[in-house]
Write a structure and sequence with these properties.
The protein is rod-shaped and about 100 Å long. It has a 3-stranded antiparallel beta sheet with strand order 1-2-3. α2 crosses α3. The chain is of the alpha+beta class and about 180 residues long. It comes from Litorisediminicola beolgyonensis. This is TadE/TadG family type IV pilus assembly protein. Keywords: Membrane, Transmembrane, Transmembrane helix.
Length: about 180
């Protein structure tokens, strides 16, 4: 009985059938995690690039003085029209425009004010219109939900209370004289 059991264990140890199952089971979650993190990174990069381009094109129109009088709503709509890959852009985009004093310079705040989906109250955001020859900083913050928040990339992103993460873009321009 003992000899038969030992022979069975020796044959089991020497057998190579099914040997690919163990590495497959161990490595598959790693590869799936890397692939999903790559998809998350590419989606984030695509959104950030679209926001940067839309903001730059909108600020270019403001700088050129095309005859359009811009306000907060029209700037926001112009950015959202140019960034078609941003889902729910009008609801999830927050603009902040600040007048910068060249002669009495202070660095702008590093933290951007964004839409917080976990709060019901809309925050008061600074939006100042410049006068002739004034330097203006326009900061756009877009909030979105990660595609796969359970992966390494999705988990590493800083999120608010509702699970949204932010992309921030900045542009500066000089208010041209009328």
């Amino acid at each position: 009985m003992i000899r038969a059991t030992l022979n069975l264990l020796r044959r089991f140890r020497a057998s190579e059938s099914g040997s690919a199952v163990i590495p497959f089971a161990l490595w598959t979650p790693v590869f799936v995690g890397v692939i999903l993190s790559g998809i998350e990174l590419s989606a984030t990069t695509m959104r950030h690039t679209a926001l940067e381009r839309a903001l730059d094109e909108t600020v270019r129109d403001v700088r050129l003085g095309t005859g359009t009088l811009y306000n907060h709503a029209s700037l926001k709509q112009s950015i959202c029209d140019r960034a078609a890959v941003l889902p729910g852009c009008v609801d999830n985009l927050q603009l902040e425009m600040v007048r910068m004093k060249i002669r009495d310079w202070t660095d702008p705040s590093d933290t951007a004010r964004c839409v917080d989906h976990s709060d019901n109250v809309a925050p008061v955001v600074s939006f100042e219109y410049g006068r002739d020859n004034e330097l203006m900083l326009l900061r756009a913050c877009f909030k979105y939900k990660p595609i796969s928040p359970a992966t390494w990339m999705g988990n590493a992103l800083r999120k608010d209370g509702a699970g949204y993460t932010a992309i921030v873009s900045k542009a500066a321009f000089v208010q041209e004289p009328s």
